[in-house]
Amino acid sequence: MQTSVYRKVERDFNLKRQRAQSDAKTYKKNIYDENPRLAEIEEEINLISVKSAKARIFSDELSRQVEQEKLELQVYKLDKEYDKILSNIGISRRDFEPKYECEKCKDTGYIESKMCSCFNQELINEAFKQSNLNKIKDENFSTFDYGYYSTVSDKEKYGIEKSPFENIDAIKNLSLNFAHDLDDPSQKNLLFTGSTGLGKTFLANCIAAEAIKQGKSVIYQTAPILLDKMVDYKFKFNKTDDEREEYEKIFNVDLLIIDDLGTEATNSAKFSELFNILNTRLLKNKKILISTNLKPQEIKKEYEERIFSRFVGDFIVCRFVGDDIRLIKKKMART
Ligand SMILES: Nc1ncnc2c1ncn2[C@@H]1O[C@H](COP(=O)(O)OP(=O)(O)OP(=O)(O)O)[C@@H](O)[C@H]1O
Ligand SMILES: [Mg+2]
Ligand SMILES: [Zn+2]
After folding, report:
1. Which residues contact 260 (CB under 8 A, 6 or more apart)?
2. Do 151 and 272 have their domain in common?
3. Based on the domain organization, do 68 and 171 belong to the same domain?
4. What does the pLDDT look like over 210-250, one tens digit per residue?
């Protein structure tokens, strides 16, 4: 889990807890202002408990008991009067208590030093937000639909022996293992290649969702935006801490997804950033998933040899084949 995720959630919890407490205080103060007798009663009860403490120290056994009972009776009466006033205005003592979002941990995030489920859930939500992924709710392994992939093999049309269905089934299984084994140094990285609308981004989202569920940190970004940002950062003179942290994350998150490689306008500064990402992450054994419309041969032509050789050695190439799902969807919508 990314420390920035933890810090953000911790800060949010502190804020909402303090807000609940100060809201409760304000509410009580308003009620007391309208019903001054309530404040008087509270004050009187406080005085009595001071008196009763004193009585315990000084009196002899008998007079202590008498005094104690007298004070208890007074408190009892005052309590009743207090509750009566509250019930006349239609509220109860519980309304003075802070309204925590989670009653179990009172918005501390912890129950007896064990993390509360609300805190854990928020860590996951925040990790999703910071990963840049917004489609994960709709695009994950549980919404994966095989129906878009033909079970008919047609080598001429698809270029491979297997049917698109068999092909995607194998890639999907590989992807699931990949998401579960991000820490395994013997696992290679993934390169998704194939023409438009075959489900590369969808499957990348599935992997991201699965990884985040396992508590891993993920960043998703398209190549044009990612490389632009990195080049901007490089040439920026005054870098803020946030910018620095954002930049560092690209090298440190458990999984970096670079979508649409090959759609960026290339230049040597971007090449060198791309090389830097690949090289640093490969050295650290941090996983990368790259998706592209380019065929391996085109990658070789587009990018420098030193970049291409990384792809060959350290990535499993998954070739997506089939019919454009966007078109299938459009056709289905019409009928
Ligand atoms: N397995 C799947 N189950 C359900 N819907 C899918 C599946 N794969 C893809 N889709 C849907 O099909 C459409 C196209 O998929 P996607 O965007 O993943 O294609 P792509 O290969 O990334 O295309 P491009 O190369 O243009 O980026 C999207 O609307 C996506 O939600
Ligand atoms: Mg895509
Ligand atoms: Zn909780």
Report:
1. 222, 223, 224, 291, 292, 293
2. yes
3. no
4. 998 888 888 999 999 999 999 999 999 898 887 888 899 89
Cβ–ligand 1 distance for 326 under 6 Å, the answer yes
Q: Which domain holds residue 317?
A: 131-334
Measured at the CA of 189, the angle between CA 275 and CA 160, to 5 degrees, comes to: 110
Which two tokens mark 98? 């802070």
Taking a 5 Å cut-off on Cβ, the residues next to ion ligand 3 are 102, 104-105, 116, 118
Q: How far is the CA of 148 from the centre of ligand 1 (A)?
A: 10
Backbone CA torsion sign across 168, 169, 174, 176: positive
Domain with residue 315: its CATH number is 3.40.50.300
Please say whether the beta carbons of 293 and 195 come within 8 A. yes
Report the percentage of the chain scoring pLDDT > 90: 66
* Number of structural domains found in the chain: 2
Pair (190, 272) in one structural domain:
yes
Note whether 161 and 153 are within 8 A (CB).
Answer: yes
Q: Are residues 271 and 210 in the same domain?
A: yes
In a domain, 49, yes or no: yes
- What digits encode the pLDDT tens for the residues 178-218? 999 999 999 999 999 999 999 999 999 999 999 988 888 88
Answer whether 145 contacts ligand 1 (Cβ < 6 A): yes
The residues that bridge with 192 in the sheet, in sequence order, are: 291, 318
Q: Which atom of ligand 1 is nearest to the CA of 205?
A: 18
Instruction: For residue 169, give the nearest of 157, 186, 151 by alpha carbon.
Output: 151
What DSSP character marks residue 94? G
Helix 305-314 to helix 268-284 angle, to the nearest 10 degrees?
A: 30
Residue 215 maps to a domain: yes
Regarding pTM above 0.85, the answer is no
